[in-house]
Design a protein that fits this description.
The chain has one domain: TIM Barrel, CATH 3.20.20.70. Helix 1 packs across helix 9, helix 2 packs parallel to helix 3 (131-141) and helix 3 packs parallel to helix 5. The chain is built from 10 helices and 14 strands. Helices cover 26% and strands 17% of the residues. By secondary structure, the protein is of the alpha/beta class. The radius of gyration is 20 Å and the shape is globular. A 12-stranded mixed beta sheet has the order 9-10-11-8-7-6-5-4-3-12-13-14. A two-stranded antiparallel ribbon has the order 1-2. It binds S-adenosylmethionine (SAM) and iron/sulfur cluster.
Length: 356
Amino acid sequence: MHNETLHPENADASPGGLVVPMASAQAHAPGTLVDKFGRHVTYIRLSVTDRCDFRCTYCMSEDMSFLPRQDVMSLEECLRVASAFAKLGVNKLRITGGEPLVRKDIVWLLERLAALPGIDNLVITTNGSQLDRFAVPLKTAGVKRINISLDTLKADRFKEITRVGELAKVLRGIEAATAAGFRRTKLNTVMMRGTNDDEFVDLLRFAVARQLDISFIEEMPLGDIHGRNSTYISSEETLERLGRHFTLRASDENSGGPARYWRVDGSETRVGFISPHSHNFCDTCNRVRITARGELYPCLGHNDALHLLPLMRAGCSDDELRQAIVSSMGIKPYGHDFTQQMDAPQVVRFMSMTGG
Ligand code: SAM
Ligand code: SF4
């Protein structure tokens, strides 16, 4: 932690430079995942379904079609993929989707993932709609932390953004998570000018009052959704607005991920900013993503993928599966190149497909 109090005007507004780190594969243990830029992959985000009970406007189109069931990994296949990664040194696993809690028998999978040797940090990202009944089973299964999406505290606005969701249910889910003993639960808020930017202060107050963390996310151009240009709002602008109401201290805590954190003075709450546009975070990237149909995407912002499901269904051995995963390190690009021209989708997949 820095000791200085950082006011918004002192915040680093410069885009992160694309400084390619020196390759240092030799520094890492053999049998672990190191890409050609020397970055060590220790974290996977595994999407267990592309389906969802919401249709958030920034994430899905209204008339989404979903994958046929046979194209989606079975729970056993999800477990096998995760186990292969764990044997390659991955210790953190985030379960996501789509909405992971709509996947049938998800608790069965979570119990087994939590028990995998080497996995010491099993976490989940959810829209919270089912959390009031799932909070206790998730805790018992061994899930360590929960991220819950929450873009607004207004019920009518919530319905507009999610097209179908009910705010009250999600609020009950947040309470249930705390009551089940989850700590450092994090809210994820996608920033949209003209939609929810008048609520950032209220959302932070809500988080502070409940000892939750909160991350503000710049909208990413994933999937063909028009009108994003006009809604883009930068992390710097939000930070500046929050700084008028809270004293924020820059923190050098990080999860090896894209968020930069600030502490709210006088509280336990951390405020994160995920800023793919205004602050490139690729140089410390430690993760890859697996879609519900078993595609390994080394980078959220690129279309290159390795298809693990056909391999598994063709009867590959565990060794062959691990070899394939190791080979994917060769296609991990240095970074994404999202621009602020948000109307043209720079990546054709929706976030619900890749797993947020
Ligand atoms: N359904 C769960 C949820 O909403 O938390 C998990 C999957 S969702 C795809 C994961 C995260 O991605 C959510 O926090 C969501 O707000 C975020 N997200 C979806 N589409 C996005 C986009 N185009 N830009 C930025 N974040 C996005
Ligand atoms: Fe569903 Fe999450 Fe996408 Fe919203 S952001 S539509 S809740 S997958």
